[in-house]
């Protein structure tokens, strides 16, 4: 086992704890709510990042899996069913695995723009179904979803009283997911995925079961999205059709791209920053414009994603030139 | 279902299908010179129609439409000059992300300029209640305008790509950009030209459909999704495929209303498209090589 690969995960835990302490000490713990929500969205994004960056398969339909998870949890824990959230989580994951598996077999045979169109279509179909079906609350969505009691005294629910514990629940999940993905990437599976990204034909010729690996990662990333959906639905107490919208899926893909494709840390950071800014509503009605502008600026100046050494070097030289200028003035 | 009903659905399907076909051809033109899907294509229709609506109160309708097209073309040229040309690493994915960002920005700017109100151009001839009887089915004269203008655009585009020097140069770019450059074709200008053409036909289609479907700041997204599906169904880069694909999608949509609730209209048409894709992974008329490319 290679300890070094876990150093970033350790840093992540330290940052998460430090942020919580800082926020509570300065009395701004309301900020934790949006960070909790961003963390659940980040689950979708890091899953998608492995699918896109490592396996090289684009999916403009991941909001659909998020919605499948969220809606399954919402339907099963409210109204006529009122099942235990644990049971509904299991059902949500099972449904997601089955759907992702069945849709993945034919879809992943497609490539490039054709794959993009097929996954986009899948997203549109799911969106139309939740928008047009009575069980899913049509345009209103489903509200009054109860909290999810993980352990006695530990409940996934909104409300100011349980803010801190929910922040840790969400980030525990993200850290767990990251560690799982790091292990995956640095294993035989990860190498196989990279070979598929490089050249599928060559990988096939070397005896890599390309179809099997692509499908497995597709299902895994779908499950990540669904779990994010389940937890966020319990946390906010409801879900609406906009969560399944095509623009949500496009947003996830764009965040993975600006995070730097094969870079789960970049995806995580961009996912948290962009979702956090828009959830806090820093830019008001200009939120979407800001998002679009960030996409373009990053693609123009940092086409390989923002989180890499070059960004640091740029910052360093910027700081140096500033320092030089200030010294020069004296 | 009586014969009149079938004909009615068929005509409605062909009308909306020809709009999808024009959007898909817009996608194809840019795809052929750059290899990317321009996600802002739907916004071209919206900007064209919205500008024309604004100016139609001040100047005669044909002039307003001309202004709408001119403004949209300017937007298209701006997109290419400012963003696409300046990309440091113009990979397919990077260019697509840029067009996604641009489509979001154009949509939001439109929201701030034109607010959320649904607008529409006046009917070109007659008004919303005038209709023409065709073998027992009733169709708005505007639908004939849509069909006529779309058909004219397709014919003109075909002539342009087949016989003009510039059209041929653009085709050369799509066949092999390096060879085209070696022959002295300025491929970058051809990319600009493709944005001009797609913006122009998009704006005109947006104007001509506006009286029937009406225009809102966010109507571009759903049009782009439909146009993209149609372009893929027909085989990317293939204009004949785009027309046939557009008609198939339009007709499927209209007939699905007669058997399923209206809310599922899109879902059914798209589900059928997906099934077709599974059996013909390169689209109806697409080349095998194109669909085997993994651009990102």
Q: Please give the share of residues in helix of chain A.
A: over 70%
Largest sheet of chain A: 2 strands, antiparallel
How many domain modules of chain B? 1
Number of helices, where a helix is a run of at least 4 consecutive DSSP H or I residues of chain B: 12
> Total number of β-strand segments of chain B?
2
Q: Based on Cα principal axes, name the global outline of chain A.
A: globular
What distance separates the N and C termini of chain B? 46 Å
Radius of gyration of chain B: 19 Å
The spatial strand order of the largest sheet of chain B comes to 1-2
Termini separation of chain A (Å)?
54 Å
Structural summary, described in words:
The complex is a heterodimer of chains A (330) and B (296). Chain A contains 13 helices and four strands. Chain A has helices at 7-25, 31-54, 62-77, 85-107, 112-132, 163-185, 188-198, 200-205, 210-236, 246-259, 264-280, 287-301, 309-329, and strands spanning 142-143, 148-151, 154-156, 238-239. Chain A has a two-stranded antiparallel sheet. In chain A, strands 2-3 form a two-stranded antiparallel sheet. The longest helix of chain A is centred in the last third of the chain and has 27 residues, at 210-236. The mean pLDDT of chain A is 88. Chain B is an all-alpha fold. Chain B has helices at 3-34, 41-56, 61-84, 92-114, 141-163, 165-175, 177-182, 187-213, 219-234, 239-259, 265-279, 288-292; strands at residues 132-134, 137-139. Chain B has a two-stranded antiparallel sheet with strand order 1-2. The interface between A and B is large, with 46 and 52 residues.
